[in-house]
Amino acid sequence: MDKRDSDSVLSPSEDEKNLGTGPVQFQALGHGDLPPDPDADLSEEERARIDRRLLWKLDLRLIPWLCLLYLISFLDRTNIGNARLIHLEDDLNITGGQYNAALSLFFVSYSLAEPLTNILLKRLRPSVFIPAIMVAWGVCMTTMGLVHNFQGLMAARFFLGLAEAGLFPGINYYLSCWYKRDEFGIRAAIFFSAAAVSGSFGGLLAAAIGKMDGVGGKAGWSWIFILEGIATVIIGVASLWMVFDFPDEATFLSDVDRDRVLRRLKADQQSSAEHEEFRMTYFWASVKDWKTWLSAAIYMGADAPLYAFSLFLPTIINGLGYQDTKAQLLSVPPYAAAAILTVFIGFLADRTHQRGLCNMGVSILGVIGFAMLLGSKAPGVQYAGTFLGALGIYPCIANTITWVSNNTEGVYKRGVTMGFVIGWGNLNGVVSSNIYRRKDRPTYYLGHGVVFGYLFVFLLGGSALQYVLLRRENAKRRAGKLDHLVAGKSKKEIEELGDLRPNFIYTL
Q1: Contact between 50 and 39 (Cβ < 8 Å)
Q2: What is the distance of C-alpha 181 from the center of its chain?
Q3: Are 236 and 138 in contact (CB under 8 A)?
């Protein structure tokens, strides 16, 4: 077999490392240097064939398991909404305000920890960091099924948020270090569609587990937390073997395939797979970049509605007159529709490179949906509004994260930026947790109105503003108005400018 076609999954031997081959060779490469091209003597058709096969290999090894992890993550953070329908509040003797406080506390610890998690992911390695946090939050989830009062619920939710904080920003950052910019969107969309699937799956699962009410002296809602927590711990342990490190160290790649991955990232103007020591310079570069904060506002416009929707959809449907199991089951179809549209928008945005326009078009669906929830009291119209609401929210989460990643270059700057953006968006979960009040049912005008405002002002308006500003910036770069930034600089210094390089063209 030709060495170029090798699919060996063996990691380099100690002899190879001592000789300077294998992953160690990449640490020795100069900043911005390319590893040798293993396909230099092949035709374009042969190179394209090998590239397609390599991409398929990456997809099979990375995407399915990561989707499972996020499905579990989203299920664990939102299943409290399903538990509420089967008497969580009555059994713990808590009020609607205390229930909302428990939801809010999750987002406080979750958001405060997020900006740091990508740095930890890079330093501790994905194959260690991700399984560790999964086992931790699985334990927290299990203990939620053992609590007897409000204080116990609050403690469990706080530590659940702390443990879960690293997964979503970490996986998105991790995937951005494997794929080219016009390949990342569809994969991020498939990954995030697991959240919508978890909404569908969660309703069905809660309806089934709720039938265990009284088993072992535990309420049905307790068993939801206990069983899903145990499943998370098992999957977390399995992740020790199923989650791989970054391209320069991943054991399932042969040396030749590792060369190919790094070369294709460099050809896409990315340095994301290179070894880079953390410096505070990268942190401040993110803080001082206007795109960080405008992107955070856009993501906030999608994320606050996401949590309001996912935490309270069973409650909203319950308010339409449907009870317990039927309300759980009616929450399934909107999530299924959202999952399909999320993947389609990821594919469309990758092909057209128009992530801003995709955000704007999809967000209009959400605006219309929540306008229907606000303007009609007919159950059929309101249920249709939940469909449009889901369709207008879920695709924008993955698309916005991909937009941020596409336009932020540098290993640590990208990690910090994504941590800030996602952390700020999730902090708005505190708002989401308190806008659907029991005293407002069945109309929930406050909740629907706040979500409508987030979608219209931040998601739609923010996306339009960023689209215009990036178009202007690209026009300056193409006209050579920023070429003075690289005058007299070495290749290394130019590379370290990241997305500030004049030849870096932003994705619109």
Answers
A1: yes
A2: 16
A3: yes
Q: For residue 378, which amino acid is it? A: A
- How far apart are the C-alpha atoms of 444 and 438, rounded to whole Å? 8
432 three-state secondary structure: helix
Q: How far is the C-alpha of 377 from the C-alpha of 442, rounded, in Å?
A: 9
Residues 6+ apart with CB under 8 A from 290: 469
- Angle, alpha carbons 27-170-223 (nearest 5°): 140
209's tokens: 């587990």
Higher pLDDT, 227 or 380: 227
List, for residues 232-260, the tens digit of each pLDDT value: 999 999 999 999 998 888 888 888 998 88
Take residue 311 and report the two structure tokens written for it.
Answer: 């935490």
Q: Measuring CA to CA, how many Å separate 187 from each of 21, 410, 466, 477?
A: 31, 20, 23, 29
Q: Where are the alpha helices (DSSP H) in 34-124?
A: 44-85, 88-92, 96-124
Task: Return d(Cα 444, Cα 394) in angstroms, integer.
Answer: 21
Are the CB atoms for 394 and 303 separated by under 8 Å?
no
Query: Does the global pTM surpass 0.70?
Result: yes
Task: State the Cα–Cα distance between residues 451 and 316, nearest whole angstrom.
Answer: 13
Residues counted in the chain: 508
Report how far apart, in Å, the C-alpha atoms of 283 and of each of 40, 242, 269, 420, 471 are: 38, 31, 20, 10, 26
Residue type, 306: L
Residue 98 backbone dihedrals phi, psi, to 5 degrees: -70, -35
